[in-house]
Amino acid sequence: MTFTRHGIWRGVRQAMPLVIGTFPFGLVVGILSDAKGLSLLETLVMSGLVFAGSSQLLALELWSDPAPILAATLAALVVNMRLAPMGAALAPWLDRLRGWRLWGTLATLVDHSYALSAADQRRGGRDAGFLLGVGLALWLFWMVAVAIGHVFGATVRLPPGHPLYFAAVATFCAILVPVWQGLRRDLLPWALAAAMALAAWRAGLGAPWPLLAGALSGAALGAWLELRRR
Hints:
Elements: H1 5-35, H2 40-50, H3 53-62, H4 69-80, H5 83-89, H6 91-94, H7 99-107, H8 111-122, H9 129-151, H10 166-174, H11 176-179, H12 183-202, H13 209-229
């Protein structure tokens, strides 16, 4: 395993197509932050530290006056618990990092950087700088998009169901492509994850429980199947 500047820049280049898909997502977060009364500084601090669009949107949906800080914090924690199995899957790289390399990589780890890095690992990639490069590129453009959305939020009011809101869903669907390992490995875990998430939603459970139910059940089945193959 190596960690090189070349790997970082390769990750930055690989992240560019994903930036196009996540940029509208960031605009939406900025617009909603302005609508909820957050200042530009507060919005940028939240986006820079949390850096997780789904949990930020969930926290903003819960935001009211007075702000339910504990509820919003717990909701963001539950949504971001999916990062734990992602980190475990990337252990061949992460376990060998120390200092700023490790903490910088973990701080910018998101679904998109995980998907690209997991695919790179399977192709025999050994440069952990790739993961940090993808994360840094996504983080930088995320901050720019959120700032633009907040600045122009006062002049732009998107109605519910606007196509721009679908940008996040479309991006998440796109990053499934490099992660897919074939019917034998992924069909059952992915199907179970979808079924559990749908069942939780049909049962009337609000966010983030359908997401958590799908993520944990799919990950558990995938891990069990992997152990059986060994």
